[in-house]
Specification:
The complex is a heterodimer of chains A (235) and B (303). A 6-stranded mixed sheet of chain A has the order 6-7-8-3-9-10, with helices on both faces. In chain A, strands 2-1-4-5 form a 4-stranded antiparallel sheet, with helices on one face. Chain A has helices at residues 40-48, 70-76, 93-99, 102-106, 117-122, 125-128, 139-152, 169-186, 197-203, 227-233; strands at 2-11, 14-24, 29-34, 55-60, 63-64, 78-81, 157-161, 189-193, 206-211, 214-220. Chain A is 36% helix and 26% strand. Chain A has 10 helices and 10 strands. With 303 residues, chain B is mainly alpha-helical. Chain B has one domain (3-287): ABC transporter involved in vitamin B12 uptake, BtuC, CATH 1.10.3470. Chain B has a two-stranded antiparallel sheet. Classes of the chains: A alpha/beta (235), B mainly alpha (303). Chain A binds chain B through residues 48-50, 69-71, 74-75, 80, 82, 86, 88-91, 95, 98-100, 102-107, 149-150, 153, and chain B through 173, 176-177, 179-180, 183-184, 186-195, 297-298, 301-302.
């Protein structure tokens, strides 16, 4: 589904990622771990096209998309849930969700591009709040909206940047359940950037750990215990 | 003419000037709100609209001339704006000073081109007969109060255009994209919105509306190569006063500037009224630097 081949990225002259290679299979949930500032968010932004790759190739669904602009990547099926959620504060929940259809209109789906039922099925709270402005939602509601909006694009791959950040434990559980259902029922592949090791291990099939911009280790969450990578994440 | 009629007449003039300012400033407010671009050649879009109206009147059959002139002014100025965005502004994105300088250059070039083609002296466009007359109050307190039809038409057109732009932004899919790009350009793009296309459409819409302003302006004053210059300063004042990117702010600010000018002219000369207006705006932005409505990222859906 997604393959990165020796991808590098920089901010000006300062190199933040080098020689990153990873892959996410169809319907697979892969987590990307690392300390603050390791370059995880930059890597997701590079895959979404929001940050230029200084080196290497990004291959998605068999095509080299390294040179494509973000909206073209979204139209090909890359959904992005950014850190901080990226909710449009002055648009209503419904309008935020409708923006998720932009990729599908661009894909030529036209009138078929309606909000999928599973969006409200997965996050029933959004149906109740549909006329409320995005900026007035709680953090947990915003996070659910951000994921639902990305799902409205009918992605084949979902990029999730710290979806549990700053949320109370009960909401974290809801998000966890939703991610499991998305994977099981919709067969959407996911690349999840996460700080909480336990959460990551509870949902992911495989993991990668980035350290100072380079790949430190990788493995299968069923075969390796979370403890074995904990030292790479502690400050 | 009674004092009441004089006062009402100035008030009416103020509203009429405000309508033209609204049409002239709308595009500036929209394109700055969305793209952070200041287009110094925006005034010349009024001029382009004016000359296109003039040409359409000369070439088209008399009965269709009026409607065709408005359409030609809007479409022509919008097409010119689209070209400007594609060729110049898009390439200078994120370089506001360069954009300012480049569009100023375009402004000078357009003025000179108009001078070379049409001459330095203005060309006249005669309003159709049904717009030529006026309504005058005969007796009573308001005796002598005169309402020229052409000015009534300009006010109606401004209301119509403002309503149209509002509906476009609030009710259409593209309008939703515009509001989204205005609030968070990067996120909109990550969801599949072609932000370059949104910029292009808004820029062209803004210049098209300015062309429309130029077209109706031609009914009340000759079209000259510098006609845009005489309105653009006021249009900028409207945008600064209203809050960049805010439709409602632009409407209110156009009303304030139009009425302030017309009101001041009752007591003093036109030049000194301008001085007072500038002092008022300078004073106002001391207290509200972001204008009537603080715009950044929240303006369009409030308008």
């Amino acid at each position: 589904m997604l393959t990165l081949e020796r991808v590098g990225a920089a901010y000006g002259l300062s190199r933040v990622l080098s020689e990153i290679s990873l892959s996410v299979g169809r319907g697979e949930l892969v987590t990307l771990l690392g300390r603050n500032g390791a370059g995880k968010s930059t890597l997701l932004r590079t895959i979404a096209g929001l940050h230029p790759a200084a080196a290497g190739r990004v291959i998605f669904a068999g095509a080299d998309i390294t040179g494509l602009v973000p909206y073209e990547r979204a139209r090909r099926g890359i959904g992005y849930v950014p850190q901080g959620r990226g909710i449009f504060p002055h648009l209503t929940v419904r309008e935020n969700l409708r923006l998720g259809l932009a990729a599908r209109f661009g894909r030529g789906e036209g009138r078929n591009a309606r909000l999928p039922d599973h969006v409200f099925d997965l996050f029933p709270v959004l149906a109740r709040l549909s006329e409320r402005k995005g900026g007035l939602l709680s953090g947990g509601e915003q996070q659910q909206l951000a994921i639902a909006r990305a799902l409205a694009t009918k992605p084949a791959l979902l990029l999730l940047d710290e979806p549990t950040e700053g949320l109370q434990p009960s909401i974290v559980q809801d998000i966890q359940a939703a991610l499991k259902r998305i994977r099981r029922e919709l067969n959407v592949a996911m690349l999840l950037v996460e700080q909480y090791l336990d959460f990551a291990w509870s949902v992911a099939d495989r993991f990668y750990v980035i350290q100072r911009g380079s790949m430190a280790t990788e493995g299968n969450t069923r075969e390796r215990a979370a403890d074995t990578v904990a030292h790479l994440l502690s400050v | 003419m009674t004092d009441y009629a004089l006062l009402a007449g100035q008030l009416f003039n103020g509203v009429s000037v405000a309508s033209i300012l609204l049409l002239a400033a709308l595009g500036l407010a929209l394109s700055f709100g969305l793209m952070r671009v200041i287009n110094m050649a925006h005034g010349e879009m009024l001029m382009v609209g004016g000359y296109l109206s003039f040409l359409t009147y000369r070439l088209a059959p008399a009965r269709l001339g009026f409607g065709l002139a408005l359409i030609a002014a809007f479409v022509g100025a919008a097409a010119f704006g689209a070209l400007l965005e594609l060729v110049l502004i898009r390439r200078l994105y994120g370089r506001p000073l360069d954009t300012l300088l480049a569009t100023w250059g375009v402004s000078l070039a357009l003025q000179q081109a108009a001078r070379s083609i049409f001459g330095a002296i203005g060309v006249e466009v005669t309003a159709p007969k049904w717009l030529a007359g006026s309504f005058t109050v005969k007796g009573g307190l308001m005796a002598g109060f005169n309402l020229p039809y052409v000015r009534l038409f300009i006010i109606a057109l401004a209301v119509f255009v403002l309503g149209g732009v509002w509906l476009f932004i609030q009710r259409t899919r593209l309008g939703l994209y515009v509001r989204a790009v205005h609030q968070d350009r990067e996120m909109a793009e990550a969801l599949g919105v072609n932000t370059g296309l949104v910029d292009l459409v808004i820029f062209a819409l803004g210049t098209g509306v300015a062309g429309l302003a130029g077209s109706v302006l031609a009914f009340i004053a000759p079209v000259t190569p510098t006609v845009g210059q005489s309105y653009i300063v006021y249009a900028f004042l409207v945008v600064i006063l209203g809050g960049l990117g805010s439709l409602l702010g632009t409407l209110l600010a156009a009303a304030v500037v139009g009425l302030f000018s017309a009101g001041a002219q009752i007591f003093t000369s036109v030049s000194f009224a301008d001085v007072l207006l500038l002092m008022f705006v300078i004073g106002f932005i001391q207290f509200r630097p972001s204008g009537i409505f603080a715009a950044r990222g929240r303006a369009l859906e409030e308008g």
